[in-house]
Amino acid sequence: MNNENKSKRQLLVILITVILLCLVILFAPVKYVFHGEGGRTRAYDNPREHNGLVPEIQWGFVLQRSLVVLLVGGTLIYIFRNKK
């Protein structure tokens, strides 16, 4: 396999990795939180359960999914690197 073909594969992997990362961030899971008196908070999955709910992105899930995408993408980029 020539180096030009490997470079094209690396660019394709980078493009797919960036697209997947964008999708992970755009479709991040949301938890609806009610901030009560005295600093107490309560989380709901369904916003119809209570009035005054505020949507909060679950950044822990986003980080976990992003790390998986980055590890797989980085591994594929490393596999398709140009060996000199």
- What Rg do the Cα atoms give? 20 Å
Overall 3D form: rod-shaped
The portion of residues forming beta strands comes to 15-25%
| Model regions low in confidence, pLDDT < 50 over at least 5 residues | none
How confident is the prediction overall: mean pLDDT? Answer: 83
Q: What's the end-to-end separation, in Å?
A: 13 Å
Number of strands: 3
Helix/strand/pairing category: alpha+beta
Largest sheet: 3 strands, antiparallel
Question: Share of helix among residues?
Answer: 40-55%
What does this 3D model show about the protein?
- With 84 residues, the protein is of the alpha+beta class.
- It has one domain.
- The protein is 54% helix and 17% strand.
- The protein contains 2 helices and 3 strands, in the order αβββα.
- It has a 3-stranded antiparallel sheet with strand order 2-1-3, with no helix packed on it.
- The radius of gyration is 20 Å and the shape is rod-shaped.
- The model has no long low-confidence stretch (mean pLDDT 83).
Which helices and strands appear, and what pairs or packs with what?
Elements: H1 3-26, E1 30-35, E2 41-44, E3 54-57, H2 59-79
Antiparallel strand pairs: 1-2, 1-3
Helix pairs in contact: 1-2
Task: Pick out its properties.
84 residues; alpha+beta; 2 helices; 17% strand; 3-stranded antiparallel sheet
Brief characterization of the structure:
The chain has helices at 3-26, 59-79; strands at 30-35, 41-44, 54-57. With 84 residues, it is an alpha+beta fold.
